[in-house]
Design a protein that fits this description.
The structure is a homodimer of 472-residue chains.
Chain A: H1 16-35, E1 39-40, E2 46-48, H2 49-52, H3 57-62, E3 66-68, H4 79-84, H5 87-94, E4 95-99, H6 104-113, E5 122-131, E6 143-152, H7 158-174, E7 178-184, H8 185-194, H9 201-208, H10 211-214, H11 216-225, H12 230-240, H13 246-256, H14 261-280, H15 284-287, E8 305-308, E9 319-328, E10 337-342, E11 356-361, H16 363-373, H17 378-381, E12 386-388, H18 393-408, E13 413-415, H19 422-431, E14 436-439, H20 442-447, E15 450-454, E16 460-463, H21 465-468
Parallel strand pairs in A: 1-5, 7-8, 12-13, 12-14
Antiparallel strand pairs in A: 2-4, 3-4, 5-6, 6-11, 7-9, 9-10, 10-11, 14-15, 15-16
C-alpha cells in the first residue's frame, strides 16, 4: 500500500561509493587550497532575500528557492493582494529568506559584514552546496556543490599566477590532462575599440564566446544581428582565427591593438601572468625532493597546457581582468573550472573599491571525468578492510580485543553482528567489496591465532593477532 | 547609506578559525566511524514535505522550514482559501518541499528507497546540517550540524557495544573526560509493570528523565499529577535512588524486577553490552603497538566511566532497547552525545521489521566544551606556515620557484601579493598568526639563500632553499 518514498526532482542521494569519490575530489581541492594559504569559511544555507535578490539578473531572481515565513505567514497581507495573484510581489511578502544560489554573493556579504575582523588581502575557500530552481536535465541539478577560492583586497597579478598554479596542481593530482585557457577582458575591450564598436563590447563577447559551440559562420551571423557593422566583423576575423604559440599571439595582438590603451594593458597582464607562472616552475623544483620519499629527486611535473584564447569571454559580465577556463583533453564535456578578476564585488553591499580574483572547480563535472577515465586511486574505493566472521558468543569474545587492537593501529574493521550462516556473511563481504575476511573458529582459538583470507586471491594465512595488521 | 548586510537570525557564519576547529571535530568523528566500518552518505537538503510531515509531532510540523513552490505558486489555489487564512492548510498548497529537520527521517527514507542496493546490516554515518524554525536562543540555532551513525538490519547487541566503543574512542581522542550513561527501555517497562502502572510508562519515563534537572521532590510531584498512585510512587523510590557499582545495580534490579519478563530482558541486554564492552578492552590491547610508533608498546587507555543510570529515559519515545547519553565531566553543559535502539524506523515508509541502533554527536556542544577546556591540538589552529615577504618584481621572481618547492613538500606557503611596506606585511603575518616569515632581499639573492624568521622567538636563520622545509 505504502508508496515508495522519493526525493524532489533535481536532487540526489549520495551513497557510500559516490561519497568516497566525492570526498576524494573535495579533499584534493581542499588540500591544494591550503598549501596556498587559503582558509575555509562557511555561510548559512539561508540568506535574507534582500541579500540575494537583484544579484543574478531577472532570470536569477526567479530561480531562487524562497522559504515561507514561519508562523502566521499571512499576517499583514491583504486578501486583495492574494486574489490579484501577483506572484512576484506576493512572494516577497510571504518569504524573507532564500537558499544560497552561489557562493560569490554570500562571500561578498561575508566580507562586508566581517570587514573589521578580516586581514586583507583575504584568501578564502568555500565548499558548500547551492540551490537553483532550474529545470533539471542531464548534468544539471537543483542542488549541487561549488568549490570556490578567492583573494580579495589585492590588485596584484600574483594572485592570478597562484590560482593558475592551483588549477595546474589540482588536475595533476587527479591525473586529468587539461588545457587551461586564459584571456583578459581588457583585451576584449581593446578589440571592440579597435573595430570601432566599443559600446557593443558585451554583444561581441557574448557572440565570440560561442565559437566553440556554434562555429565561425554562426558567430558572424549573430554579430550582424547585434548590429555590428560588416567592416567591424571583417576586422574581427583575424582575431577570432588567431593561431600560433602564446608568445606569437601576444606579439600579433600587441600590433593589432597598438592604438588601444586598455588593449595594451590587457596584453601586459596576460604576458606577466604567463611569465611568472612559467618562472615559478623554474629549476629549483628539480632539486626538491618528493613528499612521499624525501631522498628521491622529484621529477619536474609535465608542463601544463596553457592557451591564450581570445574567444574566451565567460558569460558573467562582472569580470574585469584575466579570465580562466579549463577543458579536459580526454573527455567531451564543458568547462570543468573557471574564474577571473572582478573589480567591485562588495560594491553591491556598500563597500566599493575591493578588487578580487577567484576560481571555481566544477565538482560534478570533475566527478564525471574521473569516472569516465577511471582515475580513482584504489584506496579511495576501499572502505572496511577486514570483516571478522561471527561464529557465536565464544568466538566473538575472542575476536573483540583483537579487533580493538587492529583499530588502534588504524585498520578499518567490522565484525558481522549476527552469527548468521557463513554463506550470508561472505556474501556481505563481497557486496561491500571488503578485501580481507578474518576467521576465529575452534582451531584458531586453540592456537591463539586468526585465519586471514584474501578475498581476491582466495589465499588463507594462519597468523597471530600481532602479525595481522602487517598482512592487510 | 548602504545598510550593513546581515544573516537570518539563528544562523551563523563560520570564519577560518571556527572552521578549522569544526573540521577537527568532524574529521575526528569521521575517522573513528570509518575504523568501525561505517560509510558516509548524504541526502538532499530539501525533502518532499510528505516525507517530513507527521514525523516529529504537531510541534515539529510547525518547526519545518517550507519552500515556496517555484513559478506560479498560486495556481490551483482558490482565493477563498487564501482569504480564510488557514495557514496550515494553505502552506501545504503553497509548498511541496521542506528543509531537512534531522538526519534520521531522511535516513529511513533513504533505506526504503534504496533497499535493493543496500547490503544489510547497513552501517551508515551522515554529517550534514539540519534546519528548525525554533526560537533562537543561546546555544540553540536554526541551522546546525548533526553527526549520526546508525546500524540498521540487525538485532545484535554487538552493534550497541561498538557504538559505545566509538563514543569512548572519540572522546578519548578529543581529550574530553566523559561519563557514558546507559539504560534500557525494557527495564523502564519492567519498572512500570512492577509498580502496577504499565500503561503509564510514558508519563513515568518523562518524569524521571527530569531527575537531574528538577530534583526528586519535583519528580514525585509530577508523578502524582500524572495520576500515579501513592503506593506506586513509594515503590519507585528505591529505584530512582539506586546506587552502587553497575554490577550492584544490576543485581538489585534483577531481584526487584523478578516478576517482569520484559524487565529481565532489559537487564540481560545491559549486562551483555557492559560485559562485551569490557571484554573488548582485554589484555590483547596491551600488546598492540602505538599507531604513531609501531615499536613502542601502547598503554591501555584509561577505563571509561560508564554508568547504568535508571533515570535516563531520553525524550524520544521511539527507542525500544538500550539508550545512551554522554555527559562531559569537566564542563557544565547538557548531554553531548546520545542514542539508542529503535525497532521500526522504516515502518513509517512501508518497510516494517527493520531494527536499528544509532548515536548522534552534538557537534556544537562538543565545540563549546573543547573551547572551554582549550583542548585543540596546535596543528589545528595553524593555517599558513610561512609568509614570503614581497620586496618587488626581482625578489618575487626569485621566491616563486622556492615557494613551489616548499609546497611540493607539503609546506603551506603564501607570498604577500603586493610589494607593500614591510610593516604592513609583518602585520598581516601577525594577524593570521603565521609562525614563520621568509625574506629574500639583495643579500639573500646574491648568496642563493633565504632568511627565515621565527615569529615567536624572533630568531633569524640564513638557509638554502633545500634547508628551508626542515626548519619549519
Amino acid at each position: 500500500m505504502a508508496q515508495k518514498p522519493s526525493i524532489p526532482k533535481g536532487t540526489r542521494d549520495f551513497g557510500p561509493q559516490e561519497m568516497s569519490r566525492r570526498n576524494y575530489i573535495f579533499n584534493t581541492i581542499r588540500e591544494v587550497y591550503s598549501l596556498y594559504g587559503f582558509q575555509q569559511i562557511e555561510t548559512p544555507a539561508m540568506e535574507n532575500l534582500s541579500t540575494l535578490m537583484g544579484k543574478y539578473g531577472e532570470e536569477g531572481d526567479k530561480l531562487l528557492f524562497k522559504i515561507l515565513n514561519s508562523g502566521d505567514f499571512l499576517r499583514g497581507i491583504y486578501s486583495d493582494d492574494l486574489a490579484a495573484g501577483a506572484t512576484g510581489h506576493l512572494a516577497a511578502q510571504l518569504c524573507e529568506k532564500g537558499l544560497r544560489y552561489d557562493l560569490t554573493v554570500p562571500f561578498a556579504r561575508y566580507v562586508v559584514q566581517h570587514r573589521e575582523e578580516l586581514a586583507l588581502p583575504f584568501r578564502r575557500y568555500q565548499i558548500q552546496p547551492v540551490w537553483r530552481a532550474d529545470r533539471p536535465q542531464k548534468g544539471r541539478y537543483r542542488e549541487f556543490y561549488q568549490c570556490d577560492a578567492d583573494v580579495v583586497g589585492s590588485d596584484s597579478l600574483l594572485c592570478e599566477v597562484e590560482l593558475m598554479q592551483i588549477i595546474d596542481e589540482v588536475f595533476r593530482r587527479f591525473g586529468i590532462r587539461v588545457c587551461i585557457k586564459i584571456n583578459n577582458r581588457k583585451i576584449l575591450s581593446g578589440i571592440a575599440e579597435m573595430i570601432g564598436e566599443a559600446d557593443k563590447i558585451v554583444d561581441i563577447t557574448v557572440a565570440i564566446d560561442k565559437l566553440d559551440k556554434i562555429g565561425l559562420d554562426a558567430v558572424n551571423e549573430e554579430l550582424r544581428e547585434d548590429g555590428i557593422s560588416e567592416e567591424a566583423i571583417q576586422k574581427l576575423q583575424p582575431i577570432i582565427n588567431l593561431s600560433g604559440t602564446n608568445e606569437e599571439k601576444i606579439a600579433t595582438m600587441r600590433q593589432a591593438l597598438a592604438g588601444s590603451e586598455v588593449g595594451q594593458k590587457g596584453i601586459d597582464e596576460v604576458e606577466y601572468v604567463l611569465n611568472k607562472f612559467n618562472g615559478a616552475r623554474g629549476k629549483e623544483q628539480e632539486n626538491t625532493s618528493c613528499p612521499s620519499n624525501p631522498l628521491a629527486p622529484c621529477p619536474l611535473p609535465p608542463a601544463p597546457n596553457i592557451e591564450l584564447d581570445l574567444t574566451l569571454a565567460r558569460g558573467l559580465n562582472y569580470y574585469t581582468g584575466c579570465i580562466f577556463e579549463v577543458k579536459a583533453l580526454d573527455v567531451e564535456i564543458g568547462s570543468i573550472t573557471g574564474g577571473g578578476r572582478y573589480d567591485n564585488l562588495t560594491g553591491i553591499f556598500g563597500m566599493p573599491g575591493i578588487s578580487g580574483v577567484g576560481i571555481s572547480f566544477g565538482a560534478d563535472r570533475i566527478y564525471d571525468v574521473l569516472n569516465q577515465l577511471d582515475l580513482y586511486p584504489e584506496a579511495v574505493t576501499t572502505a572496511t578492510q577486514v570483516l571478522f566472521i561471527n561464529f557465536g558468543e565464544k568466538e566473538t569474545a575472542y575476536s573483540l580485543p583483537i579487533i580493538a587492537g587492529l583499530r588502534a593501529q588504524g585498520v578499518r574493521c567490522e565484525i558481522y553482528p549476527d552469527a548468521s550462516k557463513m554463506k550470508k556473511q561472505m556474501q556481505y563481504a563481497n557486496q561491500k567489496a571488503i578485501p580481507f575476511v578474518a576467521m576465529t573458529g575452534e582451531t584458531e582459538m586453540a592456537e591463539g591465532k586468526v585465519m586471514l583470507k584474501n578475498m581476491q586471491t582466495g589465499e588463507q594465512k594462519l597468523l597471530t593477532p600481532e602479525e595481522l595488521a602487517a598482512s592487510i
